[in-house]
Amino acid sequence: MLTVSTVNVNGLRAAARKGYLEWLAATPADVVCLQEVRAEPGQLAEEVRSPEGWHVAHAHSEVKGRNGVAVLTRQAPGAVRVGFGAPEFERSGRYVEVELPSVVVASLYLPSGDAGTPRQDEKERFMAAFLPYLVELREKAAADGREVVVCGDWNIAHREADLKAWRTNRNSAGFLPSERAWLSQVYSSGYVDVVRALHPDVEGPYTWWSYRGKAFDNDSGWRIDLVCATEGIAARATSAVVERAATYAERWSDHAPVTVGFDWPAGVDPAQS
């Protein structure tokens, strides 16, 4: 009854030229979360900025050409929030959430980091500020009778099964012990990795492959695009699919959309259904 899709578009203007608009026209999703839009709304063509049949909440970065997230919904959201209250990241284009009658859906682009550099320090600061907000969001939504779904590019592979070359990436950003421990804290705070819950014993399914070499052809990827949901709605997830392109040439991003279906009312409070 509720289908949510998330994808890092790796530049929305480029993705629109390569096949994003055709994918959007065909998707059954009720909600689509985008990351790495890399454009202000005014820089996007009308059919990309405000596609027919969708309500769009944009959050662009104050640094031009960087970051940017969006949430597209079939029905008008009741409220939109940009940022999560951390001054350093308020205008960084990394978080936007919308309220629907039975669920809050957010699009997240967590910093990628770079081990041993200031970029990793930034990532650590983001994580330290974001976890308390996730707890607050879950509690507030529960008080309002809603569940929460946080979609996006989390830029962390949680387990060895979440990246092909885990042995050679043990000291790499995205698979550091501190990052993995932080994601474990997210899951112990009332959120569920929906794809892993539905596919507990598989390698991947990977969601990002480098454009370099034969990473895509060899399926040497990372599972870093996650749909994390509070326990009530996570328990009613019925399907989770990574929409991997059939061939390298058909890719319109270096990430693939992750689409999750929930047995959950898309437009009304489940208590009233």
3D architecture notes:
With 273 residues, this protein is α+β, with helices and mostly antiparallel strands. The chain is 24% helix and 24% strand. It contains 7 helices and 12 strands. The strands form 2 sheets. A 6-stranded mixed sheet has the order 3-4-2-1-12-11. The radius of gyration is 17 Å and the shape is globular.
Describe the structure concisely.
Helices cover 24% and strands 24% of the residues. With 273 residues, the protein is α+β, with helices and mostly antiparallel strands.
Compressed to H and E, one letter per element, the order equals EHHEHEEEEEHEHEHEHEE
What fraction, in percent, of the residue positions are helical?
Answer: 10-25%
Question: How far apart lie the N and C ends?
Answer: 12 Å
Q: Tally the beta strands.
A: 12
Q: Main beta sheet: strand number and arrangement?
A: 6 strands, mixed
Number of helices: 7
Query: How much is the average pLDDT?
Result: 96
SS class: alpha+beta
- Percent strand equals 15-25%
User: Strands of the largest sheet, in order across it?
Assistant: 3-4-2-1-12-11
Low-confidence stretches: 268-273
Q: Mind telling me the C-alpha Rg?
A: 17 Å
Q: What's the overall geometry?
A: globular
Assembly category: single chain
